Each structure stands twice: as structure tokens, then as C-alpha cells.
Amino acid sequence: MLLTISTTHQPATDLGYLLYKHPAKVQTLEISQGNIHIFYPEATEQKTTIALLLDIDPIGLVRNSKGPSGEGFALEHYVNDRPYVASSFMSVAIAKAFSTAMNGTCKDRPELVDEKLPLEVGISVLPARGGETFLRRLFEPLGYEVSLKAHELDSSFLEWGMSRYFTVNLKARLRLRDVLSHLYVLIPVLDNDKHYWIGEHEVEKLLEKGEGWLKTHPEQEQITRRYLKNLGALTRQAFAVLLPDEEITGEEQEELPEEVIEKRKTLHEQRLIVTLEQLLKSGAKRVLDLGCGEGKLLRLLLKEKQFEQILGMDVSYRSLEIAKDKLHLDRLPTKQQERIKLIQGSLLYKDKRLSGYDAAAIVEVIEHLDASRLTAFEKTVFAFARPQTVIITTPNIEYNRKYETLAAGTFRHSDHRFEWSRAEFKTWASNIASQYHYQVEFLPVGPEDAEVGTPSQMGVFTIN
Questions:
Q1: Strand duo 286-290 + 309-314: pairing
Q2: Where is the Hen1 N-terminal domain positioned along the sequence (predicted)?
Q3: pLDDT for 81
Q4: CATH code at 2-196
Q5: Alpha carbons 106 and 108: distance in angstroms, whole number
Q6: Contact 15, 53 (CB under 8 A)
Q7: 3-state SS of the chain?
Q8: 263-463 in CATH: which number?
Q9: Which pLDDT tens digit goes with each residue over 305-342?
Q10: How far apart are CA 209 and CA 196, in angstroms?
Q11: Is residue 390 over pLDDT 80?
């Protein structure tokens, strides 16, 4: 992957002094994952560009067990994008190659350290979990002019749609040390597969590199949570410094970012309560929680004797581990342990483990699926699993205007692939009911506004 930094500051060759890299030399540094090559494609007084080329050794990643730490398929260590994208490896490379500049030291041109320079950054390519919208929400508040080129999944199969990869160009007049700190923190925030262990030292790094800008960034909470991989104890530790005047409970700290953006802990509880009420009303004894996440609904289900068998499924193995821990499954009485089961799986594929249940709850899940894959989801739930009752909730995009901190035209969460109006949800749900011989009832969830409705909307499907 390639990172370039250019300036038209006069003389532009001052960039070499700031970065402690001579324009006439090519330098190679070693890291455990490969090699860093540093060179200047151009170096004139009018414009100077330095390039950092990170050459990752894919075989070395596997041998050293330093491959991606994501939640993908079994061969992910062997088949992945790590050698080709800017990720946490790039942050390590920036810190190693430009450590002196990041620390604000320049022996020969000390006056340049605090001078705001016209800088242009190019990144090829950057995986953006959350897409263009979230990428812009990270960089634009820091003063960058952001230009992006999105890449297709496969240029030979355009119907597959766009990938999550972008070639990114950033322009700003900032101190070089600040630009390097922004890149160091925000590149891993955009990509969840960090190759290193996340511990307390990462909190220290985040606070150090984020000094002077992170406290005032509108996406401060998302940045903190993603950088620390949503680890509750570490995010609490970071928030204690970043938000000293905020009263934040432990449970709120461990909510997913989308629930923080909406300020919707109460709303999320309302969703779960309404869902629980509908499940109880259905008379179901065997219940599915599809996309169960960290098990908040499962905890409520376990308290109700009506539910004799409870199955929670999620695509994220890590979320299931958190759910297992929060539910204290290992310490439950034997009869309670026999009532509940957690499995890893996808809602896009037929799964015989989902058969034979009376009801299924799918709370704030469908908006995380690509629209092109909704048909597969529909078949999995309504044709193959086919419970008597299906409860689905999803955001109401009309209500977004009520959130003052949410920019117009953006979704509530960076991982949402779509958000529907009430009419769009009713059209989709009605078509599903007709096709698979269900009937559907629509219910509001959350505080209701006369004009835009409620923040969430619910469809309760029952077999005719």
C-alpha cells in the first residue's frame, strides 16, 4: 500500500527537513510484517512529494501468526487484503518512518514544526468500514478537503456493486505533526482488522496521538470505540480522560456506537421491551434472536419462563463471546443452561439449526445488510426457518432530522447500508408477507412525532 505526502510550501524541499529524510536517498526500514520503502517521486522547490511504500510479506503474516484479527472465514489468514490496503500496519509504518516528525522535532528548521503548511495526502487504497459517509465524517471536521475514488468489487462484474475500498486524497493547511497523528489514529479506525494486541498501552497511544484534536472531534466516541475495538474496559478508561465531566455508566460505555450517536440507550431498551412484549403475546415457547449481538435481548428472554428454548445467532464470534460472558452462561444452573444456546451463523444462508422455532426476533439488523442481499435474508427467515411469528425492527429515516448532531443525508450508523422511510418499510414488509403467506402488523417504537413518526419501526409477521 502507498502513502504520499506533498507540499507546495516554499521552498517545498523543507518537507525533507521536517521528516528527516533526504530527497536524494531511498531508505528501507524493516518491520516484523515486511519492509518500509521511503523515497521522493518529486523534490523541487515548487513541489515536493515523499512516498511511503509498505511491502507486507503475506507468508510472514501467517508464519508469525500476525494475520488479520477479524471475524471472517477459516482461511482468512491466507486469503485477505492485508498486503494491499492501508490498515493498522500502515500506522506502525508511519510511527517508525516519521517518529521524529510526529513528536514535533526538527533540528535544522525548528520554526517549521508549528507552521501550518499546504499539505496533500494520498492513500492507495483505504478500506472504509462505514463507506464514504463515515470517511468524510472523520476527516472533514479536521479541516481536510476530501476527494475519493470508490472501487468496484470486480470491474468484470459490475453488477456486484462497489467495494469498501477507496483511493483517498486529503488536502489541508495544517501542521505536519498533526497530519501524521490524524493518519496514525484514523486509518485503524476505518478498518477493524488490527494486527496487534489491544491493551492499556493502546489507550495511552490514542490519548497521546489524539491530543489537541480528539476531545473536540464530533466523532470522538466512534473514534475511541473503534480504535479500541469496542472493548468496554478500555473505552471507559479513555472516556474518563476525554469526557471528564460526563456521567457515563458502565452499561452505556459498552453500547454499540450507533446507540451512542442517537443518544438512544433508552430507545434501545424500548425496542427490546416492545419486542419482548410481542414475543410473549405470540405464545412462543421456542424463540430465535437473530443478530443477537452481545445478548441484551437474550437476558430479557431468560427471565421469562414461557420461553423454554432460546437460540441466539450472530455472524460475529467476538460478539457471541461477549454475550456468553455477560449472560454468565458457565455459572447458570444446569436447567437454565439447557434453555439457551449461542451459535455463529449468517442470515444470508439456509441453516437447518434455525428450523422448528415458534418465533424469531430480528432487532435493528436488516439495515446492516447490503440491499442486494435482502432476498437471501428473506428466504432464510421466511422460507427456510419459517417460524410462526417474525418480529423485525429497523430505523425510520424520516426521524433522522430530529437528531441535531446528525448531518443531513447521513445514516445513524456508519455500517448501515440503508435506512427506510415508513412507506418504504411497509412496502417491503407487505411484499414479504404476501410472497411467503404471512400477515404483517406495523407498530411504532420510541417517542412519536406527529410529522416524522417514531425513531424505530416494527413489523410483526404471523403466518396466515
A1: parallel
A2: 1-242
A3: 61
A4: 3.30.1610.20
A5: 6
A6: no
A7: CEEEEEECCCCCCHHHHHHCCCCCCCEEEEECCEEEEEEEEEECCCCEEEEEEEEECHHHHHHCCCCCCCCCCCCCCCCCCCCCCCCHHHHHHHHHHCHHHHCCCCCCCHHHCCCCEEEEEEEEEEECCCHHHHHHHHHHHHCCEEEEEEEECCCCCHHHCEEEEEEEEEEEEECHHHHHHHHHHHHHHHCCCCCCCCCHHHHHHHHHHCCCCCCCCCCHHHHHHHHCCCCHHHHHHHHHHHCCCCCCCHHHHCCCHHHHHCCCHHHHHHHHHHHHHHHHHHCCCEEEEECCCCCHHHHHHHCCCCCCEEEEEECCHHHHHHHHHHCCHHHCCHHHHHHEEEEECCCCCCCHHHCCCCEEEEECCHHHCCHHHHHHHHHHHHHHHCCCEEEEEEEEHHHHHHCCCCCCCCCCCCCCCCCECHHHHHHHHHHHHHHHCEEEEEEEECCCECCCECCEEEEEEEEC
A8: 3.40.50.150
A9: 999 999 999 988 878 888 888 898 888 888 899 999 99
A10: 17
A11: yes
Computed over every residue of the chain, the mean pLDDT equals 84
Q: What is the pLDDT of residues 117-152, one digit of tens each?
A: 999 999 988 888 778 888 899 999 999 999 999 888
131-139 vs 176-190: helix crossing angle, rounded to 10? 150
d(Cα 336, Cα 358) in Å, to the nearest integer?
Answer: 19
Phi, psi of 171 (to 5 degrees): -125, 135
86-125 exposure pattern, b = at least 16 Cβ within 10 A, e = fewer: bbbbbbbbbbebbeebbebebeeeeebeeeebebbbbbbb
Cα–Cα distance measured from residue 29 to residue 458, given in angstroms and rounded to the nearest whole number: 55
Residue 311's beta-bridge partner residues? Answer: 288, 341
Residue 214 and residue 206: Cα distance in Å, rounded?
9
Give the pLDDT of residue 414.
72
Q: Which long-range contacts (CB under 8 A, 24 or more apart) does 65-70 make?
A: 66/32, 66/33, 66/195, 67/195, 68/193, 68/195, 69/193, 69/194, 69/195, 70/192, 70/193
The CATH 3.30.1610.20 domain(s) of the chain lie at: 2-196
Q: Give the pLDDT mean for 163-168.
A: 86
Nearest to 203 by CA among 171, 179, 228, 230: 228
Number of residues in the chain: 464
